[in-house]
Amino acid sequence: MIKQNINKIHYDITNEFEVVTLSEKFNRDLGSYIEISITEGKKEVKLTLKKTEVEKNSFDWSYLSNPLVESSDLVYRTSTVLEFSRDIKDIFEKNRFDSDYLEEIKKKNDINENKALSQTSVTSRLCTLELNYNTEVDLKLSDEGEIKIISTDSYHAGLGYTHKIDIIANEKTSLEKIHIDWRDNLGQTFCSALLDKGVYARVIGENNAYMSKYKIKYSFENPYKEVFDSLKEMVREGRSNFRFSQFVKVEKNNLIVKFVGHEVGGSYTPESKVTPLYIEKIQHKTSKKVKFIERLSGGFGYDIYVFSINLKSSFKPNRTLGSR
Question: Which pick of 47, 65, 93, 144 has the fewest CB atoms within 10 Å?
Fold first, then answer.
């Protein structure tokens, strides 16, 4: 039960947060315990968890109020295995840290923002994003940063919405008209366009009530460039329809992508027969673990297949592709 619970906790927090390190340690006071460091943005939660506690469904644990100071006060929490990740998220979102630590983060942010402002004219570059329905927008972006997308007006149009938006990056840009498919949103649309340019981007904030404000974090230094490049190399081969179509978004540590594949129904190959082979092909190409999410209707003779690629995973094929 201990190993099972530890694996569950590790899996959940690895998929939820940016950086996670876990190590098993021992001392006289705690006995065998687990030390976990979880980083999200500029903040870190550094916690300890006794191994004897983990065998229970509900367990006690503690974290440093200031992870930069080992002698700082401990904050004690009680969690269940299923809600442990949610409790960590609560600490980050509600800033449940020592005031000195929060002040230190603010100082670093102020320094970085001032540095970024002073270097904007030097490091900014022109990036042309290709959006929906042949819409393009030119943005000046620094090497890394955040983009805010704000809908100032919108109306229902067919299977989606048409927006007038303001884009705030290094400088403000306005776009009079952009149409968004009913399955998508503004944040996802811009994130997809950035990913297509090889820029690593993910939506880090959105106004869920009105779906009118989005914040995207991006970096031209893509840590998964090899994965992105290998996906783009997956073009149509022989009589197969299967080929890469679109980067959709980065969600936690998963890259969501679309592929063109066989249509389901009629005389075409059933979904249950082609998706295992599609997964196998993507895993062999990227060396990452892949999951099938859904099938969407495409055009004449093909459908769209949506997959999730775990960017932090590793996949090692144990046989030749296509062999049984």
Answer: 93
